[in-house]
């Protein structure tokens, strides 16, 4: 609804959608998708991409975006009309999808703070990938809320660096995309 | 299936050739007869391959932007794909405006750009630009070919993508080493892209629902656009049949003029910002709107929350993203206009005869009232040429001739849309979506190349024409007897009109200072110049222009302060449009919010 004449309608509620997009893994395809979002003023909260079918050169792009119902419909239609896009599926349409994110955290500290960091990481079920006398690197995989919660807690335990993968998602049930 | 495939392979398996030769061969196999371009370092091998053949005729332009506009004019007037060949770097960046224009107006164009050799890409080499990066946003699709094995497929795929679904421009960027490399050529196949299959047939249940809604309409209107033209002559034929059969009124966007005959009684004229009073009021008051191949552009809708408030809307478009983009459709039908119109027509004819359809008499009566307002009326003069009068005379004196019209952008463009009457599709080429000044002259060149015997006229303004004036040289070189009909008011007229309406008449930089003498300029290029400033001499001067079998620049000196009406002011609804005779102080009509809009 981005006509120059449209009044911004604060009444229209926005919601968060996770889209799975199957594309030809050709040069520039990610730039095409990212450019579509920036050029048309849509939000991207998270974007992950990797080749998923090597012999067919197909990649799966997972996009988390927020918008009104009309905006989400536009985003899907705009994505679907790109030439290298095979399929677009709104995973949020079919009930809550399975969504996971992997995060790496570097925590620096001494003494009690260091012990506390390790204890909390264990309580969250995080893996310890690297340890020195003054630092840890933890790996944590989980739903978005859990990732946020884990990062929040580690912030008080000497967190100095975070690397997140973005969301990987899939719809529930037997049906494949 | 596999048999034909193996036959194709054996037929072409031993055809080894260079990348440059593949380009030319693919153009030939795609039936390309004309190519608009400009040579340079990174496309020299392709120009060499062109030198060795004479099936593809190259039209040398004087600026790459003009090459794309010429290809657009060629495509729009012929229904074929327009083809462009330019070099790397500035060749490609100069083409960007043309590509964007073709994207906005959905014109099929294949543009081949040279690129620096693959090993130099990324090194800031001479005349290197990231062409696929730059043109990603202004093409329907683009390719950088880095392996000779991919080149034949990409070349054919580009034509397929440009012309299927919603048409648009496609760029193929070919590094110079790929042009020299040798490889096996493959001929085009039927389905040239492995997955891209635009839907052409509409959902029959939705079409059925649409026809039922139309049958119950008391105040219906057809609102048709460029999609009907793009769909082809069959779509225009089916549209005419459906409109006549239903007896509904019809209006058209700027892009769709000619799909339905302007001279027909059921045609209400163009709608939108400078559309007719009757078309816009009918759009506002209708109860069922049938949008065929138009996109609810902001020039059409005016204030969107006041747009046709009481109507149920049927929207037919080949591009699913057009439906519900600006205006919510009650029945959205994705499909090609000709296919959907054919189904609609069949279902309309099959409606039960005993069910009484509402009478449209009252609706036509209302429309007659709006028509009686005579919204295109202007104050005539016998001392100064009114621009509207000039176009009325141009219309009258070209009637019955095989005429193609292009325009530049501005007041003259809107007057041309209002006063010239198009009874056939593909006769009217104008930059609608992008609004590109400088479009008309190169587009006229393209149209004249496609129709060598026709009368091709670029209706221009004195400011726009200077943006691609160099193309007079192209017209002379290729003996194209195009006519440039300049409505010269010594202003960027539409800019001046908006400054008058919105900025207190402070004409900041909108005066056309230091204009060339257009008659001498025409002569300098080797063409013919005609000037007219007297209404009494106008007919003879126009006839002289028409009868001159060479390129002509006609400098028509018109009323300097005339404004283009009717007009829907910014931020206003269709039923709030202003007419010329009521336009004493329209600065006061537009509120603060409206002033911020374009």
Account of the 3D structure:
The complex is a heterodimer of chains A (177) and B (598). Chain A is an alpha+beta fold. Chain A folds into two domains: 81 residues, Alpha-Beta Plaits (2-Layer Sandwich), CATH 3.30.70; 73 residues, Alpha-Beta Plaits (2-Layer Sandwich). Helix content of chain A is 28%, strand content 41%. Chain A is built from four helices and eight strands; from the N terminus they run E-H-E-E-H-E-E-H-E-E-H-E. A four-stranded antiparallel beta sheet of chain A has the order 2-3-1-4. In chain A, strand 2 and strand 3 form a beta hairpin. The longest helix of chain A has 14 residues. Chain A is elongated, with a radius of gyration of 20 Å. Chain B folds into three domains: 173 residues, Thiamin diphosphate (ThDP)-binding fold, Pyr/PP domains (Rossmann fold), CATH 3.40.50.970; 168 residues, TPP-binding domain (Rossmann fold); 178 residues, Thiamin diphosphate (ThDP)-binding fold, Pyr/PP domains (Rossmann fold, 3-Layer(aba) Sandwich). Chain B contains 23 helices and 20 strands. In chain B, helix 11 runs parallel beside helix 14. In chain B, 55% of the residues are buried. Chain B has 598 residues and is α/β, with parallel strands linked by helices. In chain B, the strands form four sheets. Chain B has a six-stranded parallel beta sheet with strand order 3-2-4-5-7-6, sandwiched between helices. Chain B has a six-stranded parallel beta sheet with strand order 11-10-9-12-13-14, sandwiched between helices. Chain B has a six-stranded parallel beta sheet with strand order 16-15-17-18-20-19, with helices on both faces. In chain B, strand 17, helix 19 and strand 18 form a beta-alpha-beta unit. The chains are: A alpha+beta (177), B alpha/beta (598). The interface between A and B is medium-sized, with 24 and 31 residues. Chain A: Dimer of large and small chains. Chain A: One of its GO terms (molecular function) is acetolactate synthase activity. Chain A: Belongs to the acetolactate synthase small subunit family. Chain A: One of its GO terms (cellular component) is cytosol. Chain A: Pathway: Amino-acid biosynthesis; L-valine biosynthesis; L-valine from pyruvate: step 1/4; Amino-acid biosynthesis; L-isoleucine biosynthesis; L-isoleucine from 2-oxobutanoate: step 1/4.
